[in-house]
Amino acid sequence: MKLSRALPLLPLLPLLPLAVALNGCMNVGPNYSLPKQALVNAPLANAPIEGADTKLTTRQNVPAVWWKLYDDPVLNSLVDEALQSNTDLRVAAANLARSREALGVAQAQGGFSGKTSALVERAQESAEQYLLFNKLPVEYEGDIGISISYELDLFGKLRRGVEAAAADTESVQAAGDLARITVVADVVRSYVEQCSAAEELRIAQQSLTLQKQRVDVSRRLRDAGRGNQPDVTRGQTQVDTLAADIPRYTARRQIAQYRLAALLARAPSDLPPAVLACSTLPRIRQPIPVGDGAALLKRRPDVREAERQLAASTARIGVATGTLYPTVSIGASTGFTGILEDIGTSPTARWAFGPLISWTFPTNGARGRVREAEASSNVALAKFDGVVLTALRETETSLATYASDYARAEALRAALKSATESADETHQLYRAGRESFISDLDATRTLTSTKSQVAAAEGQVAIDQVNLFLALGGGWETDAQAAPAAAVPAAATSTAATAAAMPVAEAPAKATPTAATKAP
C-alpha cells in the first residue's frame, strides 16, 4: 500500500480565516449587565450601616485577618490549622475543582475536531445498489480515512455556554469563600466560648469557696452562742445552689472543646494544651471596623455568589436561544475505500470538502425552554435582592445586639463594683455584731450573682463580636487577595474582581426584566 498518495486537506486551509471571522459575528440572547433595578443599586445598599455606635465601631474596612485583632497567638494558630484541615473547606475546594473542569469542558466545545478510521472486512456487496444484476464476488474490503471539521459558532450558543460555566465557577468560588469565613468564625466562637465557660467556672468556684467560708463563720458563731441554726441552714442552701451551677459551666466548656476539635479535624484530647488551659476571655480592645453599606456588599461572599448565579442564568438564556438556530460546520475528509489489495492506489482514493448545515426546527418546546431560562433569570434576580437585604439586616441586627449587650455589660461591671464594696462593708459590720447574718448573707448572694452575670455578659459581648465579623463578611481573602476589594480592577474575572465590580459603582446598561440587555 502507498498511503503517501492520499490527497491532502489543503482545500480546507484557504477558508480558515473566513471561518474564524464568522465564528464571532453575533451572540444570541441578552448580554449580562447588573440590572438597574437590583437592590444592590438602591440607596439603602450604599448608605452608612444603621446601628453603628461611634464608641464601639469605626468606618474603616474590616481587615482580612480580623481574628488577629484579639492579639492571641493561640487563636491565630487555631485558625491557621482549621484553614488547612477543615472538612467543609475540603468540600469547597473539591467543588471548585469540579466546576473548573466543567468550565474547561465548555471551552473545549466547538472549533476543530477530527477522527480517523480503519476497517478491514470480508464482504459481498449488493450488485443492485450499483445498478448491476449479476452477483458480485466475495472480497476483502478495506477503508482507511481521516476527517477534520470546524464548527462555526455563528450565533454564539457555545460562547454563551462558556459564559455560563465561567459565572458558575465564580459562584462556586464565592461559596468557598463563604465556607472559609464561616469556618473562621466558628473557630473563633468556639475558642471564645471555651475560654468564657472556663472563666465563668472559675468565678463560680471562687463564689462557692467564699460562700463556704461564710457558712463556716456562721457555724462558729452558732457554736459560740452568737448565731443560730437557721442562719447556717440558709448559708448551706446557697452553697448547694452555687454548686449546682458547676456542672453547667463544665458542660459548656466541654461542648466548646468538642466543636473546636471537629473544626480542626482533631480528637478533643489532642487539642493544644494552651487551649485547654485558657480561662481568661479573649477581648478586642479597640472599636470594631465596620465600613459602610457598599463596602459590605463588595465583601460578603454570599452576595457575590448570588450575583454570579444571576450572570450564569442570564447566559443560559443565550444557550437556550441558540438551539433555535442552525449548526454550521466546515469539514474535509480523505482516505481510501475499496478492495483490500488495491488500497492505496488511485482508484480507491477519495476526498470530500464542504459545509454542513444542521437545523432542527424549533418544535417540541424549544421556545418554551427559552422562556424557562428567562424565568430562571428572574428567579436569580429575586434571590440576589433577597441576599442583599439579608446581608444588610444581619449586619444591622448584629450591630444593635452588640451595642445592647456591651451597654448591659458596662452596667453590670458598675454594679459589681458596688456589690463588692457592699459585701465587704456588710460582712465587717456582721462580724462586729452590728448587722444580722441575713444582711450578710444577702450581700454575699448579691455579690456572687453579680459576678456571674458580669462574666456571662462579657462572654456574650465576645460572641457578639464574632457574629458581627461574620455578618460583615471579612476573612475570606487569601494572601493574594488581601488588598482592599475596591482596589481590584472592575474588568478582572476573578472572584476578588467580581467583588469589586459588582456593586453600583459601575454604570449598568439598560436592563430588562431578565436582568440583561439584548444583544444587537
List keywords for this structure.
single chain; 520 residues; alpha+beta; Outer membrane efflux proteins (OEP); 2 domains; two-stranded antiparallel sheet; 11 helices; elongated; disordered N terminus
What does this structure look like?
With 520 residues, the chain is of the alpha+beta class. It folds into 2 domains: 1-30 and 113-152 and 325-361, Single Sheet (Outer membrane efflux proteins (OEP)), CATH 2.20.200; 31-53 and 61-110 and 153-278 and 296-324 and 362-499, Up-down Bundle (Outer membrane efflux proteins (OEP)), CATH 1.20.1600. It has helices spanning 16-22, 73-85, 87-108, 157-223, 229-263, 273-276, 293-299, 301-322, 366-431, 437-472, 495-501; strands spanning 30-32, 57-58, 111-123, 139-152, 288-289, 327-339, 349-358, 516-518. Helix 5 (229-263) packs parallel to helix 10 (437-472). The longest helix is centred in the middle third of the chain and has 67 residues, at 157-223. The protein is elongated. The two termini are 55 Å apart. The model is unreliable at 1-13 and 482-520 (pLDDT under 50).
